[in-house]
Amino acid sequence: AQTVTQSQPEMSVQEAETVTLSCTYDTSESDYYLFWYKQPPSRQMILVIRQEAYKQQNATENRFSVNFQKAAKSFSLKISDSQLGDAAMYFCAYKMGGADGLTFGKGTHLIIQP
Amino acid sequence: DTGVSQDPRHKITKRGQNVTFRCDPISEHNRLYWYRQTLGQGPEFLTYFQNEAQLEKSRLLSDRFSAERPKGSFSTLEIQRTEQGDSAMYLCASSPALAKNIQYFGAGTRLSVL
Predict the structure, then answer these.
(1) How far apart are CA A88 and CA A36, in angstroms?
(2) Are B91 and B80 in contact (CB under 8 A)?
(3) Is the dihedral of CA B47, B44, A88, A96 positive or negative?
(4) N vs C: which end of chain B shows fewer Cβ within 10 Å?
């Protein structure tokens, strides 16, 4: 079975600084997708960024970028110029190609210090 | 487009009672998913519909749980004879046919079983 591990239960960063959230996964599949979702308190889960495993280029979305290391099965999220609105739980998720359910990690609680 | 809508947002029930939750996906999204999220954990996949057909069910979906999507639009998730262990956030997500790897989540229904 596929597993997703987020080893940082909580991270804290100063506003305007850069923070990196870690994620590792375990799979024997070659066709899969990886995602980072943001869940603000009492609000719905929002897709931050996604990466197709067959793409070597790391995905970027404005201040958010990933470091996808396929051989190491690592998928970290970098948030640049952190803003107060970035405070939330961040979940790393895996989806096998052809399957439909997402497998989530336990999440990292990101705190932004003003 | 108002996003994925879930009703009710909160439900408190006594052990042994039946409860039913509703999910309205984004218009014209043919895929619909149910997840369960307990405190301090990431969401766990329960089941998936493509149109009205239920195509995948997790082993987490015990025989007390049943989900339907009768006309391929909204979906219901029913839990019979609720137990305290059923207390969780129940999340619904949907995705369109042309972007099936991207799931859009609703705000969830929080169930408390007393």
Answers:
(1) 12
(2) no
(3) negative
(4) N
Q: Could you list the beta-strand ranges (E) of B25-73.
A: 31-37, 44-50, 53-57, 65-68
Q: What's the pLDDT tens digit per position in B32-87?
A: 999 999 998 999 999 999 999 999 888 888 899 999 999 889 999 999 999 999 99
Please tell me the distance in Å from B6's CA to the nearest CA on chain A.
11
Residues facing residue B13 across a β-bridge = B113
Residue of chain A minimizing CA distance to B34 = A101
Cα distance between residue A20 and residue A8, in whole Å:
10
Residue of A105, A68, A65, A64 whose CA lies nearest to A86: A64
Average pLDDT score over residue span A43-61: 92
Q: How far is A104 from chain B (nearest CA, A)?
A: 5
d(CA A63, CA A56): 20
For A42, which residue in chain B has the nearest alpha carbon?
Answer: B107
